[in-house]
């Protein structure tokens, strides 16, 4: 369990973490093939040991750690118990936890997901949650509200790198493309933030998309997967993030985790990447 | 745990269940206000007792029971343990379980969700899972494949009733509106089904939408919330479902659950609704 998030709103805490540790976010994605290649069981116990080694390797090096919830959920309640422990360990290591759950629902049901992930007393409380806007960004308001109340954050899927995404995310509505509308609606929820400040509501945009939405006015964090093995370059990150670059978390998971199970080897990989993906001067 | 789904593909099993019990699907949505009004604790133990009473009231009356996953997830691993038990009890009662989780991700991560919900040996194995297509219907292929392999089903969100949904779901891409494209892509995955047969891949369409996608060619089941307190009428259901009417599950949750906690009172409500929402002759 993560206790009440100290230190103010998520956006501000993220800035502080990034100033100290750089802009690299590493995922904890214990999928079966990785568990096997690490010599671990394909089980909740295997996932627990995987998470322990990953945290030993980079928990104290990066500003944010992103557990991929699917790989815990596949072991049911036993997997979620491992995730509960991991979220606490991420906090203990001084990193922010980004639960990559891509939840999305409406009304009272979305409020249930918000209580699950974004409330102080929740077993699965994280620092920020990824959410999916198929039901409209407005359907996610319970998450925005819960995050604002508890100093947590939300990353809304906007434009993703996978090849099947374009048809939907580039469809055009009354306010432009779906992807741009998502960014604009999230931006509107950060509007109370003063000039030069940063909100706690962010978006997910892949580093490999040729037609990204404009992020300059977002005033919130950006979570950007797709770098490295998936083809995105440092230049892509700069191009897509624009003025949101200082508040951008570059997510790299596979490249790091494939360097395991040796903790020191993973640590070296992360140290090098952390140096490369640092967009603000060390404080 | 639900054991290996017997009796063939989900679409066929659903037809058989509907012929026997009608087209009404009831949700198990133990949100905190309901728990309190039933005199139960807002806790995993309260949720467990809520589910027990709901199953006693209607588990043997309806073809399908739909647990709303958010209201279990908010208690973390303890809540998911309750859901694991409930999924088994739904099966024991002779109903099909529809886990309303609205999961959606890409590639190996979607495969993780598919293993979580659509595999025979999964602690959370259900008969059908709701999924969300913001990342493109193609991103959900791991779920379609897992469902086909294990005789389970998938319901993809297409056009929902909530007021915030229209901007995105009515946006227009190369293949028409987002909602229609989702239906068409799901339909394509049912295309191997012969004339008059039914596939296992369905869609979610709300009963209150004025501009629903065409469902006539789907050859798969339809999950339709929004009836009753939310404003949708029997005429709306008929209009929207079209020729998919026999394979349509009309979902009503609040109206039933508010009749609790008395089991017999809920049972009477469900019996009356089951009579009203029956679109095929009793077998």
Question: Largest inter-chain interface?
Answer: A-B, 60 and 59 residues
Over all CA atoms, what is the radius of gyration of chain A? 17 Å
Shape of chain A: globular
Beta-strand level of the residues of chain A, as a percent range? 15-25%
Q: Note the gap between the termini of chain A.
A: 29 Å
Point out poorly predicted stretches of chain A.
none
- Largest sheet features of chain A: 8 strands, parallel, barrel
Description:
The structure is a homodimer. Chain A has about 280 residues and is α/β, with parallel strands linked by helices. Helices cover about 40% and strands about 15% of the residues of chain A. The first copy, chain A, is built from 12 helices and 10 strands. Chain A has helices spanning about 10-20, 30-35, 45-60, 70-75, 75-90, 105-115, 140-150, 165-170, 180-190, 235-240, 255, 265-275, and strands at about 25-30, 65, 95-105, 130, 155-160, 170-175, 175, 200-205, 220-225, 250. Chain A has an 8-stranded parallel beta barrel, surrounded by 8 helices. In chain A, α10 links the parallel β9 and β10 (about 250). In chain A, α3 (about 45-60) packs across α12 (about 265-275) and α6 runs parallel beside α7 (about 140-150). The longest helix of chain A is centred in the first third of the chain and has 17 residues, at about 75-90. Chain A is globular and about 50 Å long. The mean pLDDT of chain A is about 95. Chains A and B meet through α4, α5, β3, α6 and α8 of A and α4, α5, α6, α8 and β6 of B.
